[in-house]
Every structure is written in structure tokens, then in C-alpha cells.
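My current task is to audit a protein record that another person submitted. My question to you is simply how this chain folds and whether the C-alpha cells agree. This is what I was given:
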Amino acid sequence: MSSSGGLRDDELVSPEHRPDPRSRANADANAASLELPDRLASRIRAHERAGTDQPFRHRIALIGAAKLDLRRPIRLRSGVWQLLEAVYAHGKPHWLDPVHALAPVRELLFNEQAPPGTDRGIYYVLTRLARAGISPAAFASHVVVPRLARDADWRHWRVRHIWVLDAIADMLIELKDAPPWNEPTIGGGLALSDVALCKYAGRPLCRLSGSRMESQATHLAAWMAAWKSFRFSDDRFLSFLRRSVLPCLYRLSGRVDPEQLAPLAHTLAGMERSLGARLSAMGAPAARSCIEEEGFADRLDARLDRHAGADGYYGLVRELRAWLDVVTALSKLDSGPALIGLAGELSMASDTGYFSDAAALLSVLRRVEGVSVPRWHLQSLARLGPLERSAFIEETRMAKGVHPTCPGRPPEAEAYWSGTATLAEALSIPDVASFRPPGGVRALVRVHGARFPEYGALMDRLLCDIGEGRDAGWTRDTLASWDSAGPAFHELAMRQLFPGLNLAAVAPSSRSFGSLWAGRPSAAQSHGWTNISVACDADGAAVPPAVADAIRTKLETDAVDALVAALSGDDQASGALFARLGKELADARKNLDGGAGFGAQAGTRRLAVLSAVMDASELVSPVAGDARRLVLALLASAWLLPAGDPDALRAVAATASRFADRPAIHDAVASLKADCEPGYPGAMHAALALETVDELARAMRGDERLVAALASRELAEVLAVSGKAGDAHARLAGALRQCAGYRDRALDLARWRDLAALRSAGPETRRVAFRAMHVGSPLDLYAGAMAGELTGLKPATSSVVIRLWDSGARRFAGASLLSAGPEPGSPYFLRLLGLQTATARRLGSRELAAVYLAYRSVAERVSEASGRAILVPTRAASLAGEPAMASLAVRYETAGDPESDSGWLRAIDPARPDSFRATRELETLGAWRP
């Protein structure tokens, strides 16, 4: 039975169900509208004047039934008047007319010519419920009618049904006094508690036989205790319950005993604490998708057919409980709720025991971000027979939660280098298959050292020397010892030290350490180092799923979703972009012609750029693969559209398509497509997306056609009008990052780490040791080039490079650059804060601040030794390198200081001892290590 207005009868009341205005005139009019005997009319008028919250129109039929009942002899009366008085005393705005609700039962009694008073027991039970504040119409609809409408033998109703209905009413009345049922609504206001109580706790019992009610009192008590344990604080879990579970309980009513029903209720209560918490924390689209996933009830008939002739309804109950266990287990995985529908589909393609085995498998599965690992395990399990599945589960458990045959994830994009196979061959290592991701250069170093122990020891001493900053004082004999292993060893060492860097672009002729040090002094000035230790999250696996859901709602994860979707490998044409810009240009010119003007100087400049872009778009080929068109789309999107705009992301997608054959990009994009479910982006996915953008920028650097396109005559006017200058490679890389919304996404990801660390109750993530140092050796050239690779900023001879050493990975993780002023003794300018993308994406704001302070502490020593001040820009955009760290650095330095007119602050000054504070603040952060 549904209330009018299209609402379910347990949902909040529509406007037409609001209480009637309470006034004497209104009460008298209600009573006068009915054809009642004078004595009854006066009694009704008195009740109407006393007032009730139930709308008058929803008790008209009840008043009419009371009128007829009172005309009968007392021994033949049904007791309708007592129910009417209870409705007057306790009525609620949502209470419907119980006489209308009983229409099927009344019709049956009429057809069977039952005498008056046969329904006395029904009205007695409804009166008790009304006095307890439970809607009698709801109980009639969901308990009385489903039980009695199928039994035409009204002579045995009292023995078969009435006392059972009374027992169910006793349970509901007891529940009504306990939370959450003692509140007017449940589910955050979604459902009316007394109506829901009849539907959820009462209706599944409506067809139980009397013998079961007596023999299974203990299980009925457990059923009632389970419903007391629900909280129903959120409407989403209640919506999931009403759509996917309750229809099953209604279907099973009378088919199974309380012995089977009670465990189902307890499982549901446990699910509320897992899935309910997830649904409450999710964003609205993800929660809606989860609720609308195929549930057990969607194929109830088909599932019942599979149990026909065997264990019937009891088998269906076992399968339902196993499904609930699967849903509970999936809700404990990061993207698990997205697989609820898939689990249902796989179960229909397998046997009836699939859910039980899937629940056992999920209980041992490692909790990782993404959907690909649990999806692979569920699909693999479905392909096995019942006898093979237990072995698969045990193998997964023994492999620490991921089956040995499960394909691994690709590594971060920037750590990949396509020349590992050639280098392995030069090092006399024939087995090169293992050096693609996730192996890479570090695996090659490990295998080479194991196969040639003398070279392994040499590599160990080399890395140890560099990590201690001793490379500044290497002598000819030291250099000769490093080069004794040959050019291949030198390249392997450099690949280990500077992951992802194009070494030939820095020093094309260098094939040995001796050539690097040629003409250099035997020792250089060093300013020591600063050691720090920071928390570094590998993939977010330690973050509870509900916390991750809450973080997604607080950050701009829609933009992350869009970035992931853009990296699909599809070559999307730029037609939509140029059509959009063309319309803007036409509208602007129309306004100018009409005398409306185009705004201030910035608007005039934009109009000039728009005009140049549209003129260039008519000169280049409309084919999407044309390098000039891609360059124009990237530049136009970067200059004219907001960061992360959908049309700008299409330009990123076109770039990904152009380089889709590069293994690093192909593997990263494939991983994002397979692992990141819409609505469930994780920190790992956001990090991998940003790393892929940087890898795309590196790929563009090596594409001669793109660089030539940037210098083509078709784009000359665009570049001239834009006023943008600088290195061509850096220009393309900057445009790509701008289109992808790189800076905002990097800041979002740092905040993600912050919130995860703040809200996670799990163990502390692993810590990574870094060492910031100024050494003054030729390796500074590579460290600076690696840090400024995508910005075009390179260290000059007079620059000071502060290197960042990853003590665990034994490689350089970044560098900062201090550029000397033009005059002797003039200040240094902080121009670059570089950090490897794969490292930066795993640090929160606190950790990024610690890295900056480590750089700053070494810079303070440089300032103290040289007597030069160090200036820091007041705008993050003026500080190249890692954008999140740049923003933190500028906020730190400008806090409490007025912005300089020149755009630079004198942050470190030998004349101000208080400006030397980095070590002290590192100690406060708990990151400094002696």
C-alpha cells in the first residue's frame, strides 16, 4: 500500500498528508460532513475538537466502520470504536485509514459470508498497536493482509492467526520503545519509523506458523535483538536495504523458520557498520551507483529455480546469507562496492556455492587501492569448479593476499627507461625480460651485482660515496677505479642515480666519470648536509576505505576522474575546442561591432590570442595526427581555458594517443583504465596519472615533429601574440601540465595524504630518509637537470645546486637551484624546487614542507658561508619544479611578511640571525635526524 503522491508508505509524508488546521470551526465542519446519529455525532465532534495529527480524510472510512459496528449487538461488535479512539489519541500525519488497508480481508469475509465480529481479533491487535504509536494501517498492509488474505477459512482464524498477529505486535511494540525505532523517522529522515518497523521487522514474520512461533521463541528473540542493533543513521544504507534485501525477506516469509531469519538480520546489522559507513562517506554519484548495482533480489526467481528439487528455500537462504557476506567483505575493500553487481553476475554463471567461496576468498584478499585485484580474483574463482576453489583460496592466503598468478601493476611511469634491454646485453646479462616494469633499472643493478660480485661491490662503494657527498673530492685514482668496469657500468650507475633523465641531453659526450671530472678542481667547496625522515605512503592501502571515501568528497576528485578518463589512449580530435573558441571569438567581435567593448586590457589581449589561434587553426591540417594541430590545441587550451577543462583534457588525451606505443605510457594508461573505477579514484591512481603526464612531457621532448611544429610559420603569429617565451620543450611541457590541471591535482594529492594521515587509525606508514646537501661536484649538473627537466631551467656555472638524496633507494630524488645575481656578492635567487614525481606524489603537505626545510637549511649554510642573502619569490608560479612544494614554500616564507614590490622576499639574510631557522623547524616537525 502506498501513500498518495507516489511515495512509498514508509517515506516521509507528502504535503497533502499534513495535519488539518486545528480550530473549533474546522472540527465542527468535519463532524457535520458525516451522516451520523446525533449521539455518535456529538462524540465524534468532541474528539475532533480535542484534535489529532492524522488528517481527517484518512479516518473517514474508519468512522463509517465504527458507525456500523456500534449498531450491532455488543457480542457481535468488532471493536472498531476502540481503534478509532486510539487513532484520535495517538494519530500521526502519515497514518492512513486502517479500514482501507483491510479492504482485501473485508472483501474475503464478505464473499465467505462471515458473521459480524469475525474480525474482532484483528481490530483488537490494531488498537494495541495504535495505542503504542504504531500505524495500524501499516500493520494491516504489511502483516495482516499478507497473512489472512490467502486463508478463506475464517472459522479457524483465531486459532491459526490472531494470536500469532498479537505475538508479532508484542515484538513491534517492544521494539518501538528502543532506539532507533523510538524516533519519528529513521535513515536520516528518509523513512517513518513505525511504518518501517512493520515492513522490515514484522512483514518477514507475517506467514510464520503458530507452531514455529512457539518452538522457536529463542530465535525470534534473536531476530528482535538484531533489529534493535541497527542505527539507520543514514538514508543510503536504508535505500540499499529496501532495494536489494527486504524483497528477499518478504519472499521467504513463511517459507523458512526464525532459525534461518535471525542470522540474516544479524548479518545485515554487521553490514550496516561496513557498507553503511562506506555509503555514508561516499560522494552522491558513487553511492547512487552502488545502491543501484544488481542485488540478490533482482534475480530471485532464477536463483530459486536453481535450488528447486534440492534444498529449496533453505538453500536460497544460505545463498542469500553468503551474498551478504560477500557484500560486507567487498565494502571493506577500497573499490569493492563497485564489484557488487559483478559478483552477482559471476554467481549466476557458476554454481550455488560460489558466494560462500567468494566470501572466504575476499576475507584473505590483500586490501589495496583499485578494482583490478579483487575483480581478477572474483573472476578467476568463478572459472573454477567447487572442488578447485578451496585450493585457490588457500594459495591466495599463502601468497599474503594476492594469488601468485595475479598480474602485477606497472610501476610509476617516470622510473621506466626503454634502454634497459640494450644495457643488460652490454652488461652480459642475457635474460632481459625481467627488466621491464616493475623491474627496471634497480632490478638490473641488483641482478648485475649478484652475477658479478666484484662489480656489485664497486657499485655499492660508488653509491655510498655519493650518498656521503664524497664525490666532490674524488681524485684521478678514485675516478679510474669507477671507470675500470667500463662504459656500460658507468651508464648503469648514472641510470640508477638519475632515474628517467635523458642523460645524453645533459652531457652528450660523457661516457665515464673521468670525462665528467675532466678539467675540474680536485676538491670543491661543500656546505654539509641535512638529514630528514618523513612518512611516505606507498599506495594508500593503510587508509580505511570509509576514510578514503570521505577524502574523495572533500577534494576535487571529479577533476582526477576526468584526468584518468582523458588518459584513455583515444585520439580525440580538436574540433570541439576550436569550435568553442571560434564561437567565443565571433561573439567578442559582435560585441565590439555593436559598441559593447570587450573589457579591459586583459580582455583585449585574450581577443588577440583568440584571433591568432583561430587563424592558425585554418592553416593547419584538420587531421588529428598532425603535430601542428596537437601543439596548437595544447597551447590554446593552456592559454585560453581553465586548468583541467574538459576540452583541455581532450588535448591531453590526444597527446597520450600519440605516444601510446611507449611501454611506460601504455602500461600506465592500461592500469588506470583497468584499475580506477569511476567514483573510486585513489591516491595511487592520482599519482600514476600525474606521473604519466610527466612521462608524456618527456616523450614530447624527444618528438622532433612536435618541436618543429612549435617553430612552424603557421604557429609563429600565435606565439608572437601570446608573448610567451622560453625553451620550446619547457613550453610544451608547461602547456601539457596546465591542460591536465597538474598543479591543482598535485596540491589535492598532498591534501589527500594529509587527511589520510589525520583520519587513519591504522599503523604509521613507512618512513623514508632523505639527505639534502651541497657538494659542488659535476654530478650537480645532472641533479639540477633532472629537477628542472620539464621546466627548461638548467644550472649555470655560478649556480648552487642543493641535491636531495634518497637514502633507501640510493638515488637522487630532486634538487633545488640557487641562481647567483649579476654582481659579485649580490643575493642568490631561489629558482627551482625539484622533486621526482614518483616521490612527491607519496608525500603529504607536512612531508613536502620538511623537504623544503631541508633544502632551506643547506641554503642557510650557503648564505652564511658566502655572506649572500637568498631571495624567494612571492608567487608559487615563479618557482619552478614541484608545484605543491612550491606553494608550501611561498606560503611559509610570506607568512607575516608583506609582499615585496619586486616579487622577491629576502628570506635568508646573514644580517638577520633569526632567518636561519630551518633546522629548528625541522625538529618541531619531527623530521630532523642528527
Remarks:
- DSSP finds 46 helices and eleven strands in the chain.
- Confidence is low (pLDDT under 50) at residues 1-7, 410-415.
